[in-house]
Amino acid sequence: MINILVVDDQKHIRDGLQAMLRQFPLQLDHIYSAASGIEALELLRQHNIQLVITDIRMPDMDGLELMAQTKEERIKVDYLIISGYSDFAYAQRAIELGAKGYLLKPVKREDLQSSVEHVWQEIQTRLSLSRNFEQLSRRARETDRKELRMYMQGAAGDETWIEETERQNAELWRSYRLCLLREELWINQPGTSSSHSIESIAYRVFGRQACICLQHRPYLILAVDAAVDPGVFPAALKAEQIEAITAMTGPQQGLADLPGSYVQVMELHRHSFLFPDKLCLLPVHIERLEQQWELPHEELYALFQLTGTKNSGRITQGISSLFHKDVLQRYHIRYTQQLCRAVVQMMEEYERVIRPYMGEEALDLDSLRSLFDYPGIRDYIQALQQLLLRLNQFYYEYKCSYRNSQDLNEAIRFIHENYHKPLDLAMVSNHVSLNYAYFSNQFKKNIGKGFAEYLRDVRLDKARRLLADTDHKIVEIASMVGYESYKSFTRAFRDVMHMQPTEYRQLMRRRQGREGDYQDTVL
Question: Which residues neighbour 248 within 8 Å (Cβ) at sequence distance 6 or greater?
Answer without folding.
Answer: 177, 178, 179, 180, 230, 233, 265, 268, 280, 281, 282
